[in-house]
Amino acid sequence: MAEQYEAINWNAVEDQIDKATWEKLTEQFWLDTRIPVSNDQDDWRELAAPEQWVVGHVFGGLTLLDTLQSQDGMVSLQQNIRTPQERAVLNNIQFMESVHAKSYSTIFSTLNTPAEIDEIFDWTNHNEHLQYKANKINDIYHNGSPLQKKIASVFLETFLFYSGFFTPLWYLGNNKLTNVAEIIKLIIRDESVHGTYIGYKFQLGFNELSEADQQELKDWMYDLLYDLYANEEGYTNDIYATRTEWTDQVMTFLRYNANKALMNLGQEPLFPDTAEDVNPIVMNGISTSTSNHDFFSQVGNGYRLGQVEAMSDDDYKF
Ligand SMILES: [Fe+2]
Ligand SMILES: [Fe+2]
């Protein structure tokens, strides 16, 4: 008797969050090629060399993290799904991580010379702090428990990205590089759903653990966060310290987002920092709910695919 291979049935959805997340993610689908980044070339030319360096290298770092999510992260999470629909959602996330990783290259090819692009990738593939966090997370993806993998993923999605996101949001708040920022806001909108969804799946598993096992995993989680935070301090210094005056503001932004990552995982915040402590210019940029479609160029991050209507019998009458 052959084994039974089961078809995914979207009419018998066990967890409505899977369906709602699928719908949200597919509705907010986008591609980097639809954003007119070349409109930012005048702004770019006006930036001083250290500012251009910061922009290029934070995007190098972000490329590495999105590459990790697309190559190892989602595959690793797919080994421990609760429902077949969860796998489908993770497939969507995995593809969008490839779009994210590619979109930085779209920005590079518009703003940077080939020699600059080579240098950015070389730096990215060798910077000590960047490599530390990528390898730390990747090691958990390959050797961690199912719940540890979800913690690593949420920390990456909701915390580690933000040392890089700070820069385009800061320029956006100053009305510069607005098309580049549009791409970043679309990425942030995706990451926000990814972090929430994977955090939710984490909580389902976490709530099934005994109190002792919960405590043990919590200790592991906070240790990991401290470790990543210390590394992020080094990374933030590498990028910002000698070229900008933003280092302290970036660290505040990181602590604020670390708390959000913990919140996604259903845990208590670790740091005292709240939204009020974050530079309001950056905060304004991040509030994707107040998307200002008209303020931007052709494609706002309020971009939507056309609503798909269910076929009715009338559609078949010609
Ligand atoms: Fe991403
Ligand atoms: Fe993501």
Automatic annotation (TrEMBL):
<dbReference type="InterPro" id="IPR000358">
    <property type="entry name" value="RNR_small_fam"/>
</dbReference>
<comment type="similarity">
    <text>Belongs to the ribonucleoside diphosphate reductase small chain family.</text>
</comment>
<dbReference type="InterPro" id="IPR012348">
    <property type="entry name" value="RNR-like"/>
</dbReference>
<dbReference type="InterPro" id="IPR026494">
    <property type="entry name" value="RNR_NrdF-like"/>
</dbReference>
<dbReference type="GO" id="GO:0004748">
    <property type="term" value="F:ribonucleoside-diphosphate reductase activity, thioredoxin disulfide as acceptor"/>
</dbReference>
<dbReference type="InterPro" id="IPR009078">
    <property type="entry name" value="Ferritin-like_SF"/>
</dbReference>
<dbReference type="GO" id="GO:0046872">
    <property type="term" value="F:metal ion binding"/>
</dbReference>
<keyword id="KW-0215">Deoxyribonucleotide synthesis</keyword>
<dbReference type="GO" id="GO:0009263">
    <property type="term" value="P:deoxyribonucleotide biosynthetic process"/>
</dbReference>
<protein>
    <recommendedName>
        <fullName>ribonucleoside-diphosphate reductase</fullName>
        <ecNumber>1.17.4.1</ecNumber>
    </recommendedName>
</protein>
<dbReference type="Pfam" id="PF00268">
    <property type="entry name" value="Ribonuc_red_sm"/>
</dbReference>
<keyword id="KW-0479">Metal-binding</keyword>
<dbReference type="GO" id="GO:0005971">
    <property type="term" value="C:ribonucleoside-diphosphate reductase complex"/>
</dbReference>
<dbReference type="InterPro" id="IPR033909">
    <property type="entry name" value="RNR_small"/>
</dbReference>
<keyword id="KW-0560">Oxidoreductase</keyword>
<keyword id="KW-0408">Iron</keyword>
<comment type="subunit">
    <text>Tetramer of two alpha and two beta subunits.</text>
</comment>
